[in-house]
Design a protein that fits this description.
Blueprint (H helix, E strand, L loop, with lengths): L10 E9 L4 E8 L5 E7 L6 E3 L5 E3 L2 H11 L7 H17 L4 E3 H15 L1 H11 L5 H15 L1
Parallel strand pairs: 4-6
Antiparallel strand pairs: 1-2, 2-3, 4-5
Helix pairs in contact: 1-2, 1-4, 2-3, 3-4, 4-5
């Protein structure tokens, strides 16, 4: 591992511990030349996941984009960031564990709505209104009625 301070290529691991429920490993290293310490993170390389958009274009799955959409839906709501990050991790893990390397944006959106429905119903309705492109108040009311029916 290259030292970020002096550029030397030799370092030793001083401490190592799992983070993100074992998904990554945090390592404290010490440069063999300048003796400065730095932190590295190690994670399993995942296969690329491609999202097929509504217009049939393809782009790489971006967890930050998904988290950003969920954050916007939760604006001014009492939802901790950690809860949304965990939900994003779960969605990404679900997609990665499937045998498909290509997934539709519809599937990603449906998974996000499922998680938001569990986390915060107002955020769920906000996300659904953008994702499903509610055209008028009737479409909005239909979704609210479905939400109310599922609660009973």
């Amino acid at each position: 591992m290259k030292c970020p301070y002096c550029g030397y290529l030799e370092s030793k691991v001083v401490d190592s511990r799992p983070i993100d429920e074992g998904g990554r490993i945090r390592r404290r290293r010490e440069c063999m030349r300048c003796q400065k310490r730095f932190t590295t993170y190690e994670m399993v390389e995942s296969l690329p996941l491609v999202v097929i958009k509504k217009d049939n274009s393809r782009q790489a799955f971006d967890r930050h984009k998904l988290l950003g959409g969920m954050l916007r839906a939760c604006e001014k709501r009492p939802v901790p960031l950690g809860v949304l990050e965990k939900a994003t991790d779960e969605i990404e893990n679900t997609l990665q564990s499937s045998l498909e390397r290509e997934v539709t944006s519809k599937r990603v959106g449906e998974l996000a709505m499922e998680k938001l429905k569990e986390i915060d119903e107002v955020a769920y309705v906000r996300f659904a209104s953008v994702y499903r492109q509610f055209r008028d108040i009737n479409t909005f009311l239909e979704e609210l009625n479905r939400l109310l029916d599922s609660r009973q």
